[in-house]
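task queued by scheduler; priority normal; single chain, no ligands, no partner chains; default sampling; output format set to structure tokens
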Amino acid sequence: MIEEEMEKCMSDESQSEACGYDTVVQHVTKRTQASKEYKEMMQTLKNLMMTVVESMINKFEEDEIRGQERQKKNQKEKSSCYCTDNCSDSDSSFNQSYKFCQGKLQSILDQLDPGQPKEVRYEALQALCSAPPSDVLNCENWTTLCEKLAVSLSDPDPVFSDRILKFYAQTFTLSPLHMTKEIYTSLAKHLELHFLSRENHIPTLSAGVDITNPHVIRLLKKVRLLNEYQKEAPSFWIRHPEKYMEEIVESTLSLLSVKHHQSHLVSQKILDPIYFFALVDTKAVWFKKWMHAHYSRTAVLRLLEKKYKSLITAAVQQCVQYFELCKTMKADETLGQSNHSRDNQKTFYYLGQELQYIYFIHSLCLLGRLLIYTQGRKLFPIKLKNRKDSVSLTDLLILFIQLIYYSPNCPKMTSAAHSENYSPASMVTEVLRILCDQKECAVECLYNSTVVETLLQPIHTLMKGTKDAPNCSETALIHIADILARFASVEEGLVLLLYGENMNSSKEESLTGAHVIAQFSKQLLDEDISLISGSEMLPLVKGAYISVCRQIYSTCEGLQVLIPYGLHESIAEAWKKTSLLLERIPTPVEGADSVSLVSQESQNIMAWEENLLDDLLHFAATPKGLLLLQRTGAINECVTFMFNQYAKKLQVSRQKTSGYGVLVTQVASTAVGATALRDSGFITGLLSELWSSLEYGRDDVRVTHPRSTPVDPIDRSCQKSFLALVNLSSYPAFYELVGNQDLPNKAEYSLREVPTCVIDIIDRLIILNSEAKIHSLFNYEQSHIFGLRDFIIDGLSVERNHVLVRINLTGGPSERILPPRMLEKGDDPYPWPMFSSYPLPKCYLLEVTRSAHIKQDSDIGKLLSHFKMSDKQAEWIESCRRQFCKMMKSKPDVISGGALVEMLENFVLHLTESPSECYFPSVEYTATDASVKNESLSSVQQLGIKMTVRYGKFLGLLKDSAESDLTLVLKHCARFLKLQQTSVKSSLLGLRGGYAGHDWFASSLFLMLSGDGARTFRLLRRFSRLLASAFLWLPRTHVSRYLPVDTVASGIHPVHFGSLHSVEMLLKAELPLVFSAFCMSGFAPSQICLPWLTQCFWNYLDWIEICHYIASCVFLGPDYQVYICIAIFKHLQQDILQHTQTQDLQVFLKEEALHGFRVSDYFDYMEILEQNYRPVVLRDMHNTKVQST
């Protein structure tokens, strides 16, 4: 009927719009209540309820009469019970009655008296168990009943005792907290009195515990019931007053703190309650749950501190005693034999030694949970009996660590899980893992030299080869490696391993943890440790410690420390041996056993080979590590392994592959890395995924309606593919992938033809210069927009105009105007003129202040006076630098034009006359202008010359003849540098001839010298002798004979493995939020800095700032190149964090100019960086010529 009325209303509503939800409900309710059907239903329900109530009353009266007859010997009840209409409708009852009366409870109390016959007591207890808990609770005699039950718990009759426990369990399950609290406290008090009573026969430690003994069974049942409630109570006690929770906590701690007056002999010790709790809850789960929430943790810790600290003292004492036991045992004699003799049989008897171990595990877990929290740590130090000194936090943690390698080995049991979960070393390691994961706790307790030395003690012993040391098993070594790896994965722990507690200490009395771990790992790889050589678990030990090293060398600062050990070479050598071993495995012959054995051996070797490749691959996490990886000759195999891992995960999920994002961008920033990515199929896979997203759409998305035309330059469905290709856009990598290749420009393209390389993408999506290409695209507009955006970050008409203006207009943020990418609101949505032919419309040009015409004031004259020659070279150099810094801070704008040029020329000339300042030797050069005119320049250089001249004219620095002058300068530079280059046989395009890119540094000096070619080349020749030339003038060290042969062959420039490595190291230390933003975005900071430094910040900074960048690096040292990059990231910090949230950080940093950044504004900050980091950064730059290990 209701549904019919609803349909009528809805049909009426469709005709008139005045009806809402509330109106419909009111209308249907009124119509229903007035209907005949509703009245008939209510009358039927009333008759039925009257019959039920009458039946209940009759049944109740019958039960009442029967109960009175059964209680003839008892006093007559003073009041009777009558059931009214508000009786409970619960079907649970007291002897099938419907209200638990006051008289009945009194009757049960009388029947529970120990003097009553057994049958009467049983029946009374059965009646109590059958009664509704709420009725029992509401009776006035509830408190008396609790007391009676507590007394009855000691009844020797096991059946009666079990029935009382059943009532307790039922109360715990069905009753509210204030009722269960009384039951719990009474049971806890009963147990406390039970253990304190001399009449009860509590087992002793020497006798052990027989869990088939009836007395022990009853005791364990009571303890287990308490423990089960302990674990459940935290889930609901926050909803009740705090006093209830505190009473439960206090009664528990009071029970667990019970101690007997012990005999002088430990073997005659009477077992305390804590032993039985450890039997039923070995890992102290109850304590873990009580400490989880602040609500209960506060009460627990307060009571432990004020009244029950003895409980913690006993736990510490137990750990100390167990450790002393382990130390006195030789080769697991006692415990080992005991365990072996009981391995293959089920036992119901716990020996005293086993009880001690179970209590130790309980104490270990309890203390481990306690140390997580600040207030828990404040309970230390702990004063123990028979011990002079108190046990501090550090003492306790050292004891835990020593237990790992002093504790006995667990025998190989049938139940592997049991051995793993309860072995001493595993349990201690699990506790230490938890503490490592809690940063505050780890910093306070673990990250100190004493703990690290304790962890490294067995490693020192094995490296020394002494046999009188404790027998440290391979399993213990793996556990120690696990803890060390967790140290190395956190910044505070890593710093401790690298530098020790005092980073600034000049003492080198002992090696820090990182050095010891690296030495040990190298010896493991070389199998140079006799005590464990030949062990079956040796590969696992190797893998564990290489993983620790991997955590270290995958960071810039960690790699700096580990480089001398040549781990990359040792790991590569181990990988080569493993690969050869894998090839030599014989083909399995018929027979299941042989096939199984060979297959298992093959799987183990393959797993070890993959681990080694993964370890090598992680060298690519840093710029310098990438150079080391390339030197091993295994970069192709590592990248192939990475692609296989990526492909496997891609089959499972389309989510971004975790862990390899930064590695890909580091690898893709070099020519050799790009080649490896191409050969592995990685790039082809990315392009296939891109093409599928653009042209076909995802095949796992159900299409319910046509997709809307994207309005953004990059559709969200293609965002991941777009960012993956952006990561390949560094110039060395891009040149290697597309250099010297022609566009296919086919006459016909199949719709099923998918691009497989970058040049195909350019042909199909960007250079759409034929009808065939356009017709081959299903989504022409979206795909073409993507193509333009992928390389210039733009697309189609409005975006195309932006692209053309951008590539034809050079300048910093305040030197050029770029048209917007989107239409504007209003009558004229796009007022910008289209640029399709030269000259560029003037509306895109800004008026620039001609810095060359700045009037020299007295400050400049004073500054220039300091740059005149002096007899005292060292003093003169320092004086010039001080004056330069002073002017950069006070009047930076005057350091430009002719004044800056004169300063540079004088300073460089003076430096080159000082042998100590010269990094490269002098080279005799006699070529004339006529002799170099026949030198050829690449098309890239010719294009760069045109851009330089156009920019110079815009700045008012060059004349019309400047193009030929700059061309001559670059030809002289090519001839001059060729004299210092070595021949390289390489498949890399970038190493087959001269420098592949344009010489932006030489072009910058040409502009600074106002187009004077002779002065420019003369300054470059002198400058080429300085260390700064290796990092500012990139062609200077291209295939240079002054670099190590393997460095030249790698094709990786010193700027990449030198400056950019330092940038990432300093960025992590100085701007952790920015560094984390890069990690979250999945690419490396070096990928952004590389184009900045390669093109001398052209198009990123205004001309005056470019001059200040060059001058700062020349006057103050090449390490200022690093500090300026850090200053830029500091300037962009808020923007970086914002674009990390919008997931377009790569696009923002690659595309946007550095708005608002001035070198002079950050001079104070850079001076601080210099004070803190110059020794490391400059030393690293000086080592560029050194052949690394």
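post-processing summary
- The longest helix spans residues 36-70.
- The beta strands are 209-210, 349-350.
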